[in-house]
Design brief:
Elements: H1 3-6, E1 10-14, E2 23-29, H2 36-46, E3 51-55, E4 60-64, E5 69-70, H3 74-88, E6 92-99, E7 102-111, E8 114-127, H4 134-141, E9 155-158, E10 163-167, H5 171-176, H6 181-191, E11 196-201, E12 207-214, E13 219-222, H7 226-240, E14 244-249, E15 257-266, E16 269-282, H8 289-295
Parallel strand pairs: 2-3, 10-11, 12-14
Antiparallel strand pairs: 1-2, 1-16, 3-4, 4-5, 6-7, 7-8, 8-9, 8-16, 9-10, 11-12, 12-13, 14-15, 15-16
InterPro entries: Phenazine_PhzF-like (IPR003719)
GO molecular function: isomerase activity
Protein name: Phenazine biosynthesis protein PhzF family
């Protein structure tokens, strides 16, 4: 069944860095006759870590890995909104996206080096205390307790699905990590974590580099995880009074990526916006003049 849909898949490099790298993401117009098994099969067959299935009439986007459907996906949102801007043949678009029971604002703008997309991530739930058996998950990651940053500490953050944020002291420590992925998947399942976002802050203000390990959802290492960047931004706002950050990812996969995030304090908590640049690489996302005319 999925074979006919491969011709309709657009590959979008999401969260590129200076016109290169980014996370290859499959994007296609959703076919409501497809079951979820078929959607997962599309991801497997095209060879990306994620796929975004877009319903242009309802402004709904669903995200899948080979393992399951995701409540949300940050770099997938950036890929989907870039796809829609390109398909509609415009240079700027402000819209709304419905995903996982939530509706949020999006902006997409054509730039010289790709399509810049920003979206409202919403309120981040921060839990600065973690379980007492943290040593088990650190062991699965291959991180010694002494490698944890002295002025920071592991914490849990959730934009809808919790993940563990782990600060390490140095970039060499970050780059040398070789997690035991089956063990890490087990530990994340036990705690209900999407995965672990390991990072080190740069000496340059408001910059960091990071790696995201998410074997619990079938992604051993994510090229880029935009939602975790928003989580980190909220954490650093709460603990270090930083209101913006740029995070480099993807170096271990040979696909350098960059995600930006800003924070705002609200009466309900810390809200974040996430931004990244996307490049339409392959596929049929040609301008849809009929849809564009209806949106003027």
């Amino acid at each position: 069944m999925t074979g006919n849909h491969h011709r309709n898949v657009t590959i979008v490099d999401a969260c590129t860095h200076r016109g290169h790298g980014g996370s290859p993401t499959a994007v296609l117009i959703d076919d409501h006759t497809l079951g979820d098994d078929a959607r997962r099969a599309v991801v497997r067959d095209v060879g990306t870590s994620h796929a975004a299935f877009v319903d242009t009439e309802a402004d709904t986007v669903r995200f899948f890995t080979t393992h399951s459907e995701l409540t949300n996906c940050g770099h997938g949102t950036i890929a989907a909104q870039a796809f829609l801007l390109h398909r509609r043949g415009t240079t700027k678009q402000q819209g709304r996206q419905r995903t996982g029971g939530r509706t949020f604002d999006t902006t997409a703008i054509q730039r010289d080096d790709g399509i810049e997309v920003w979206f409202d991530q919403g309120i981040i739930d921060l839990q600065n205390t973690v379980s007492e058996d943290l040593d088990k998950i650190l062991s699965a990651l291959g991180i010694e307790p002494a490698a944890i940053a002295a002025d920071d500490g592991p914490s849990v953050a959730s934009p809808g699905t919790p993940r563990l944020l782990v600060p390490v002291k140095t970039a060499p420590t970050l780059h040398s990590l070789r997690p035991d992925l089956p063990r890490l998947a087990t530990e994340c399942h036990r705690r209900g974590y999407l995965g672990c976002f390991v990072y080190t802050r740069s000496p340059v203000r408001d910059r960091a580099i990071a790696r995201m390990f998410a074997p619990a959802i079938g992604v051993g290492e994510d090229v880029v995880n935009a939602n975790s960047t928003g989580c980190l931004a909220a954490h650093l706002y709460a603990t270090h009074a930083r209101n913006s950050i740029e995070v480099e990812q993807g170096h271990a996969a040979g696909r350098p990526s960059l995600v930006r995030a800003t924070t705002t304090a609200t009466t309900y908590g810390i809200s974040t916006r996430i931004g990244g640049t996307a490049i339409i690489r392959t596929g049929p996302a040609e301008p849809d003049t009929k849809k564009n005319a209806g949106r003027q």
